[in-house]
Design brief:
single chain; 321 residues; alpha/beta; Rossmann fold; UDP-galactose 4-epimerase, domain 1; 2 domains; seven-stranded parallel β-sheet; two-stranded parallel sheet; 11 helices; 13 strands; 17% strand; globular; binds nicotinamide-adenine-dinucleotide
């Protein structure tokens, strides 16, 4: 089975490639990634010599190269993780998000249509639904994104769906909650706070710290994506979440406690514009496919904190850290 993974040098994509290579003997992976600031081949250092793994540096907006790689490798399935993914950066520089997240997705879909790729999986996010005070969003709820990031991802979901309805392209969409785990770029909340705490630097917490996110361990997300690939229905969306709703201040205190650091490292900073208060997903649909998260939140957090503490080489090699 020839599988093209776009954005495979990023956080979730690299964990997913490792997961596929370990689980299936018959998969061959083509990791197609532009290597933006967030792409890092060190994320896959342990699999780079695997004969079933290949890397191609390329932009998902480059239709000629995308088509060439799909054709040459007779790609059967494509999973699109490639995106600009950091909300703060989407506020200061939205054009990259519109380009990669929307136009790049279109480029991939069109190439898949042209070369009859048998499965296209779009990795989307819970952020497309916007904020919810009470209850949880279902897959059929309207999209109401708040940031240029989530709006670009929502637009991409619409285009993906249109390729199913108009051309019958076999597409599926996953929308997961916030992931955490090894190899996450240190601008995101959990790795940045772990690293700052390890270095006794202040932990800059937005607003009152009471924004709520449902935290999903990245390995659980990889399993869920696999379940959707195998058992999901074409043209459908699947929410993925673990039900571990925590405020940012809860997460911050947990990290400090685990590393025996003082709470005086917490530094409250001005909230970001359009900061959604709470995300929450109803995950009945994917549970009906037989998936549930295997990791307890506290255990997965402990493992994650230990990983960053033991793998300084990884984050010290990233510029600015
Ligand atoms: N991290 C999360 O908590 C989370 C939650 C829900 C959904 N998602 C979605 O999952 C996907 C992966 O997220 P992540 O956290 O691993 O992101 P990431 O920022 O760590 O990785 C993104 C990868 O995409 C690559 N990339 C960016 N632009 C590209 C382009 N034009 N062409 C080719 N490659 C390009 C980067 O080099 C990088 O390797 C994204 O689509 C994101 O929207 C992430």
């Amino acid at each position: 089975m020839k599988i093209m993974v776009t954005g495979g040098a990023g956080f979730i994509g690299s964990n997913f490639i490792r997961y596929l290579l370990e689980k299936y003997d018959d998969v061959e992976i083509i990791n197609y990634d532009k290597l933006t600031y967030a792409g890092n081949l060190n994320n896959l250092r342990d699999v780079e010599d695997n004969r079933r793994y290949n890397f191609v540096r390329g932009d998902i907006c480059d239709n000629e190269l995308v088509e060439k790689i799909i054709k040459k490798n007779e790609v059967e399935q494509l999973i699109n993780f490639a995106a600009e993914s950091h909300v703060d950066r989407s506020i200061t520089g939205p054009e990259h998000f519109v380009k990669t997240d929307i136009f790049g997705t279109f480029t991939l879909l069109d190439a898949c249509r042209k070369y009859n790729v048998k499965k296209y999986i779009q990795i989307s996010t819970d952020e497309v639904y916007g904020s919810i005070e009470k209850g949880s969003f279902e897959e059929t709820d309207p999209l109401n994104p708040s940031s240029p990031y989530s709006a670009s991802k929502a637009s991409a979901d619409m285009i993906v769906n249109s390729y199913y309805i108009t051309y019958g392209l076999p597409v599926k969409i996953t929308r997961s909650t916030n992931n955490f785990g090894p190899y996450q770029y240190p601008e995101k909340l959990i790795p940045s706070f772990i690293i700052n705490a390890l270095m006794d630097k202040p932990l800059p917490l937005y607003g009152d710290g009471l924004n709520v996110r449902d935290w999903l361990y990245v390995e659980d997300n990889c399993e869920a994506i696999d379940v959707v690939m195998q058992k999901g229905k074409n043209g459908e969306v699947y929410n993925i979440g673990s039900g571990n709703e925590k405020t940012n201040i809860d997460i911050t205190k947990l990290i400090l406690k685990a590393l025996s650091k003082k709470e005086s490292l917490i530094h409250y900073v001005k909230d970001r514009p359009g900061h959604d208060r709470r995300y929450s997903l109803d995950v009945t649909k994917i549970k009906n496919l037989g998936w549930k998260p295997r990791h307890r939140f506290e255990d997965a957090m402990r493992k994650t904190i230990k990983w960053y503490a033991n793998n300084r080489w990884w984050w010290e090699s990233i510029e600015g850290k």
